[in-house]
Specification:
274 residues; alpha/beta; 6-stranded mixed beta sheet; binds ligand L3IBWBLD; mitochondrion
């Protein structure tokens, strides 16, 4: 789709000649207050109800942004941040069809009609753009690479921003944990190979940003998860045994959320079809 490999490589070479941190900085003067803004913007935003992290990524100079895994109850918050920073939201990307909350994608598209929804080709959900491994999603001079990482659901994807050495792992890899495999198309063996082959193959210093954390943590690294993740540092057989015996309660609102998320949060269409 948005084939930007070449452009992204060019930009990496270009920006490596920038400041100490590998990027260019811009200083904006607002109300006599000088705001130093690095070119790259990353905001980790939390929803207290579902314990979900939403990520806003942007090129502050180009003013182009993407949002990963927005939550419907937090759409006004996300919209305000975009407005405050003067960012143009190009894409709302979901790492998978969520079971525990309704995606904010549909509501954000109402507020910003030019914004396009993105989801995996294998998700079974409706969206403007379908992605698969190797696709790149470009915003300004940055991009994220799509890696298919099934196992929690068939359509799970991880977004890797090589420019900043960060990975957004959705519900596939959590900090010290991983997504459950007991519903939707969950499968422990598939999840184990997705994480080992598609995520743990990244350099150890890459940061890991998950879609949830239930313990108050915000970020990890590939090296840390490879070494200390109590589930993923086990053998495949031990992992399968563990995952098949988690005995977690089903997400409380799964039956309401799934049909809405299969339409990327477009609720009007659902009502019309009822
Ligand atoms: N209590 C929540 C659901 C919590 C849950 O099941 N989380 C999922 C990701 S959202 S489907 C998960 O994979 N957890 C892994 C784990 O080990 O906890 C609710 O009722 O919504």
């Amino acid at each position: 789709m948005i084939a930007a490999n070449f452009k992204s490589q060019l930009f990496r070479q270009y920006r490596n000649r920038g400041n100490l941190f590998g990027g260019f900085s811009k200083v904006t003067v607002m109300n006599n207050c000088r705001l130093a803004q690095d070119t790259f913007v990353l905001r980790q935003l939390f929803d207290q109800e579902s314990w979900t992290y939403t990520y806003l990524l942007a090129d502050y100079v180009a003013k182009e942004a993407i949002i990963i895994d927005p939550v419907i109850e937090q759409v006004n918050r996300d919209h305000s941040i975009l407005k405050r920073l003067g960012l143009n939201l190009l894409y709302c990307a979901n790492t998978h069809v969520h079971a525990d909350h309704v995606t904010g994608t549909g509501e954000l598209k109402k507020l910003i009609p030019s914004c396009e929804s993105i989801i995996s080709l294998c998700s079974g959900a409706q969206a403007d753009i379908y992605v698969k491994s190797g696709d790149e999603i470009q915003f300004g001079r940055y991009s994220v690479e799509v890696r298919q990482t099934p196992g929690h659901t068939n359509g799970c994807i991880t977004f890797v921003c090589h420019d900043e050495a960060i990975a957004f792992t959705g519900d596939c890899l959590l900090i010290g944990g991983c997504g459950r495999t007991d519903f939707q198309e969950g499968d422990p063996e598939t999840l184990y190979s997705s994480i080992h082959e598609q995520i743990f193959s990244l350099p150890d210093y890459y940061k890991v940003y998950p879609a949830h954390d239930y313990t108050g943590q915000t970020v990890s690294t590939i090296g840390e998860e490879k070494t200390y993740n109590p589930r993923l540092s086990k053998s495949l057989d031990e992992f399968i045994e563990l995952m098949n015996n988690l005995n977690l309660a089903y997400p409380k609102k799964i039956d309401v959320n799934l049909p809405i998320n299969l339409k990327c949060g477009i609720q009007e269409e659902l009502k019309n079809n009822d």
